[in-house]
Amino acid sequence: MKAAIYTMYGSPSVLQMAQVPVPTLEGDYANRVLVKVHYASINPIDYIYRSGFFAIRASEGLLKPNPDAQIMGADVAGEVIEIGSSVTRFQVGDVVFGSCRGSHAEIVRSRESALAHMPKNASFKEMAALPLAAQTALQALRDVAKIQKGQRVLINGASGGIGHCAVQLAKYFGAHVTAVCSTSNLEWVKALGADEVLDYSQADFTKQGKQYDIIYDTVGKRSYWSCKKALTKTGMFVGENPFKARFQLLQMVWALLTKDKQFGTHLTSHNAKDLELIRDLVEAGRLKPHIEKVYPLEQIAEAHRHGESGHTKGKIVIEVIPS
Length: 323
Ligand SMILES: NC(=O)c1ccc[n+]([C@@H]2O[C@H](COP(=O)([O-])OP(=O)(O)OC[C@H]3O[C@@H](n4cnc5c(N)ncnc54)[C@H](OP(=O)(O)O)[C@@H]3O)[C@@H](O)[C@H]2O)c1
Description:
26% strand, 10 helices, 15 strands, Rossmann fold, 7-stranded mixed sheet, Quinone Oxidoreductase, Chain A, domain 1, alpha/beta, 2 domains, binds NADP nicotinamide-adenine-dinucleotide phosphate
């Protein structure tokens, strides 16, 4: 099958198209399914793997990516073409979306527990945009920050993959949402449902004299310590990307050592329950992905360059087998 692979760490130019063996369910894969990939998406984790960031080398390959780790892609939307012997939720022919490893290829093997059936009112293209970004936003707000109705929530990076889901989800949970983004995205983010918008190029939200119950820095651009004065006494800062964001790793270690309950971070869990909730929210019109651009799989390096510029509006989607 056709896949986008990388056999060495480096810039987007290390990405290349190749013919690779089709994954199988032989061996220890009774709880997996094979999905024919119609659409996938890209996420910052792809650039982290591709660039060979030190923290991933122990699992991915010390000097170069291991042969079984050469296909990226964490989101998938497509059609089930084979099921493992213990799979009960899916049948061949079902249309699904969810999380996986290696969806930048025509066929991907995914856990049954990391997939959900497609909603009735959205396309493969749209649902490929959501799994990682929406699960991350959902878990950060609901599980880490324990969001409550009526709380004042600030979303930094509100126009990004996670951010635009976080704005919509925080509204779903009944919060008053202040969304922070750049000038050109203000109107769009307001239309997503934000009650207030702030332009980070014009104002620093920590210096407006306002306090928030939750500050969710979806893009790892702000330090916890700089945001502390903008938190209520019981407020919480949640930061993504503890490994790459400025000081966040240090702050996480410090917060753990000092048992500081106002700092939170997390690793996204891929699970069917949350994917089903995301599907239901899409069906109910409460969550809608925004796709800035679709690239064919053959242009994966271009897609990485675009995403890595750090200013994607919503998501970048990869067309693998057009449906
Ligand atoms: N915890 C986990 O397990 C987990 C899971 C997934 C992702 N992550 C991490 O979450 C982070 C965000 O992921 P993502 O997919 O949302 O990224 P993304 O879509 O690439 O984020 C792009 C957005 O960042 C905004 N931005 C850039 N500079 C900014 C600034 N100074 N202030 C505020 N916003 C700014 C841009 O808005 P403008 O164009 O308006 O500037 C753009 O909309 C990544 O670091 C990723 O590694 C963590």
